[in-house]
Every structure is written in C-alpha cells, then in structure tokens.
Amino acid sequence: MAFNKTLSLSCFYFLCGLLFMGAFILFTYHSGSGSLWDIDEPNNAQALKEMFAQHNFVVPLFNGTLRVAKPALNYWLMWGGVEAFGMNSWGLRMGSVLVGALFVLYLTLSTRRLIGAGPALLTGLVAATILHSQIIFRAAVPDPLLILFVSMSLISYLRAYQFPEARSFNILLSYAAMALATVDEGPIGFLIPGLIIVVFLLLRGNLPYLWKEGRLQWGLPLFLLIGLPWYVAVGVETHWRWDLGFLLRANISRYNAEMQGHQGPFFYYLLTIPLALLPWSIFLPQALRPLWLKRKQLIQQYPVDTFLLSWLLVWVIFFSISATKLPNYVWEAYPPLFIFLGIRLYQALSGEISFRHRGLYTSLFALFSVGAALVYAGAVIVPAKIPPLGSLYYLGLPYALSAVFAALWVWKDQVGRWLITLTAGAAALTFALMTYTEPALNILKPSYFMGEKIRQYQGDNPYSIAAWHWFQPNFLFYAGRGNMILHRTKHMAELQNILRHNPRPLYLVLPSRDVPDMRRSLPDNLHIQSIYVSYELYNHENLTLLRISPQSAVSLQHRTPPG
C-alpha cells in the first residue's frame, strides 16, 4: 500500500483533524434551525426541562410522571449544550453533533493500526458522509452516545486482542465504554457487545481468553464503578420503580412486542441498511466480495475480519428477531461496513486492486436510479400526499448528478476524482435537506409556532394547556413552562372539569374538524378564541389552537399580541 508507506504519522494526524472539523461542520450545518422532531426529541427535551424545574438531574420525568424510557447520560449531554446555547434546538442538539464528530475521529484513529492509515481515513470519510449520519448526529437522542461507546468498546477489545503490548489499557477502555453505553441506553450497552466478543472467541476456539487475558478482575469492578451509581441513585429516589419499569417496559416489552407501530419483517434491516449507507452502499458488493473469497481461511487466518463480521451479524440478527424495529436500532452495526468499504475504496484508490469498470458502472447506475426515484417521489408523490409541502424534486439531484459525473471520471480512469465527486454529492444532499427541505417541513410542525403564540398572549401571566383527541410531545415542550402539566382530554366531562377549577386561560389544541362541536359543547360563559390554525405533518390534518377563558376575566387577562 504505497499511500501507507508515504503517509507520515504527523500527516495522518493532520488529516484526522481535518476530517474531524469537516464532520463537525457538516453535522452542525443548520442543526438548530428547525424545531424538534416528534416524538423522541421533544420527549427527551421535555424530560430535561422538568429536571431543570425540579433541580433534580437524577430522576427523569415527563409531564409530571416518571419517564422510564431512557437512562440519564443523554440528558446530561443535552444539559451541557443547553448551558452553552440555551433551551432550544441548538442547545439540545449540539451534544449529538460533537459526539458524531468525535465518533468519526475515534473510528479513524483507532483503526489505523488494524487496517492501515489510508483505509482508516477513508473509513472515517464514509462514516461522516453516509445519509444516516446526517440524521442521527443532529438529533437530541441517545443514539450518538451509544454509537460512540459501543464502537469504542468493541474496537478497543479487538485492539487488545491484536496488540498484546497494549492489552491492559485497551481492555479496560472497553469495559469503561460498555459502562457508559449502559448509562446511556441500558443493558444493550454491555449485553450485545459482550455477546459479540463471546461469539468471536468461540469461533476462534479461544474462549478461555475471556478470563485468562480479559482482565476480568479489573474490568468488572471498573464497569460497576462507572455504570452502577446512577442506577442505584435513581432506584433509591424512586423506591426502585424507575429501574423495574425500565427493565420491563423499555427493554423486555419492547423486544417481545412491537411498540408505537414500529414493526417489520425479519429482513427489515436488509432493506434499510443499504439506504442508510448511501451513497457508499453502492460499493458494498465489491467491499464484501473479498470476505467471501477467503471464507475458508477467514476464522483462523483473519481475526480482524472475523471480529468485524461477528459484530455486524450478531447486532443485526439480534434486532431482526426483535418485535420492535427501527432503522436506528442497527446503527451500531455500521462501523464494520465502514471499515470494509474504507479498505476496498483504498485498494481502488491506490491501484492495489482496481474496480472493474463494469462493476463501477453498475454501482453508479444504482446510485443514479436512487436519485431518479427521489426526483420522482419529490415531484409527484410528496405533493400528492402532503400538498402544503410542495415539490421536493431537488433532493434526488445530488445522487443522480454525482453518479453521472463520477461515471465520466471512471471513463477517464480518474479514480480519485470519482471518489471526490461522490463525497461532494453526499455533502450536497445534506445542504439541500437542511437549506430547503427542513424550513419547509418546519412550517408543518405547528407546536413551535403555537408556543410562540401563547407567549405573545400571556407574557409572564399564568395559564394552562390541554390537548383534545390529539397529542405530540412537541406541544408540551414548546407550549408549556418548566414542569407544567399538559392535560390530555378525550371526554367533554374531563375538559369541563378542568375549566371549572381553572380561572386562568386554557390553551387547547385540537383537530380543526372538532372546533365547531367544541364551541357548541362548552358553556356560554366562556370566551373562546381561535388564535392559530395550521396543517400538521404527522397526522396530515389541520390543527387549531383555542384560547379559552371566563367571560368575566377577558378584560383583565386578554392581551392582544404584538403585530
């Protein structure tokens, strides 16, 4: 590998720094310009807001009740962003942006000795520019931390296995990373990485390595020292209700039964992974073919490849069996694919093993077809399904055009240039998404604008909020203050009871089709104003925000908003 021989260590570190900055800029671009996406982001954000209101960063709450969905580490990450940028999209998401860039940096640095400097740099480039990275590393969710710590735990263990002179440090780092992953997402932070390690050692016929060389006498105490304190603290404060609820509802129930409509066939991830890894997934056949060719010698002669395949297959199979399925669940299985792609792209770039032109043209045609499908979907299907959004045809252009220009470079045997062209196409899609699509979609998420309307009317005066036959966590986050409770009502008696005992204005959001019946059903002594109407993206219908207050209080409480 000529590139490896000429690339000095200082040059490698410099390029790693550029890659880190490029990833950070890419993930940062317009990350805070749009409101939060239901349901996960506002769930996490509201829990953090209630932690601030309660001055308690141990026990997660949502709408005044115990939230057992996620452990604490991601809340603490968002806490740091909020302290720096405020309780807004920028503050809530900047932690994920930083973690995403750190993941790219770690992946590049940690794989240098395993696969070489050139392949490691291309591995980082692939990780930074795939489509799914542009989504997950700009979201206020726990996934970025889990991705970083799972990758750190498994790569560190592999490095310990491969490089005995640094075994103790790498294995202890692996245990520490598993502990942090456990404080971020729960048992999967150590169960699946542990299972991957056991499967790898069994395949190698070397299971005794686990206790003979695995530093269990130091690793397990370190894991417990890092991972256990918060679980004990939240258990003591909630009389173990949080721990029990998290184990039963957020783990066992989610695995055994589909939740929130997230389901799919066993082969679900075979469909989502190629889409998630665009544009580089078009080269997966070329990247995986060498593994097939050396399959008979793979386990005994190629431990790095065996470990990476164990990582990939165990993670994907585990969640393919799960009843609840989401594309995010297998993101932690991507790093082995990044590495295989990085190695194969480097071999082509260096001339060591060139791509066949037929295979390259086939791959680029596949990318062009994806781009053309996105153009059609954006121009025809999206306007028909979501009329207020208009045409999004431009989203397919980066892939389609980059495929065409890359094919021209292939025709001229300019390997480096088609690689740069595809990288530019990936970045261009991010630019199009965040510059044009995100603002258009943001208008169709009315909770933020409803919150602004309420603040215009109320100022610092007290009020209440409620929802009728509709709910999204975003409304609670943007319309409420601190740990204010959102009343979710489904029967008129519930709503009338709230109004009877509530002298302050009540802001009620409901489907616009229910507004006439609501006006007829409420008592005549109430002043009812429709102050905001908007189409909503999630339910594909218009929502109305009503301001309801006693007639006698209108002159005292009602303020016309500015403008």
TrEMBL record:
Record's subcellular location: Cell membrane
Q: Which UniProt keywords apply?
A: Cell membrane, Glycosyltransferase, Membrane, Transferase, Transmembrane, Transmembrane helix
Keyword rRNA-binding carried by entry? no
Q: Which InterPro entries match?
A: LipidA_mod_glycosyltrf_83, RgtA/B/C-like
Q: How does it sit in the membrane?
A: Multi-pass membrane protein
What domain of life does the native source organism fall in?
Bacteria
The answer to keyword Glycoprotein applying to this record is: no
Which parts pass through the membrane?
A: 12-32, 90-109, 115-133, 175-203, 215-233, 266-285, 306-323, 329-347, 359-386, 392-411, 418-436
Residues forming the Glycosyltransferase RgtA/B/C/D-like domain are 70-230
- Short name of one Pfam family for this protein? PMT_2
State what protein this is by name.
Glycosyltransferase family 39 protein
Q: Which organism is it from?
A: Acidithiobacillus concretivorus
- Show the taxonomic lineage: Bacteria, Pseudomonadati, Pseudomonadota, Acidithiobacillia, Acidithiobacillales
